[in-house]
Design a protein that fits this description.
Layout: H1 10-37, E1 47-51, H2 52-55, E2 62-68, E3 71-77, E4 83-87, E5 98-100, E6 105-108, E7 113-115, E8 121-123, E9 132-138, E10 141-145
Antiparallel strand pairs: 1-10, 2-3, 3-4, 4-9, 5-6, 6-7, 7-8, 9-10
FE2/S2 (inorganic) cluster binds near residues 90, 110, 111, 125 and 126.
Amino acid sequence: MKLNYSLVTRRTFINTLFGGWLAAFAAGSLYALFKFAFPTLGKEPDFVVLKKADFLDIPVNSVKPFAWGGKLGLFFKKENGTTQALKGVCTHMECNITYRPDVKRFYCACHKGWFDESGKNIEGPPPKPLEFFDVTIEGDRLIVAKKGVKVELPKA
Ligand code: FES
């Protein structure tokens, strides 16, 4: 069957095309503006420099948070006094984790994921262990770096 007229007028077609182009342009502009306003959002650094005095004296069997770029980092002092730093983000869907000193485990409340003290995923959906960092002390600074990253700070 042949129609004598089109269901879409030329004007509607052109308006739809222009509207789509305008929407794509607006979305692209908003995205660029957002990235400009929050340049570090979601990015992770290779290392961070912290004040040693703020972290080394925390009680045993506890953690202290620090900013790992836009994510959570945790400085952890075990019961035996040894210290470690790790990314405080679950390996399942990137929720922040908490340390439960009563059971000496890390817990992710999003889907009930558990990690032991060494960061090994032991229960729930997390597919792999937590990410630990290298920690070095230079003077009054505590340098937390991704594994294998060499950090050379300028001498003060
Ligand atoms: S995000 Fe942690 S268990 Fe799902």
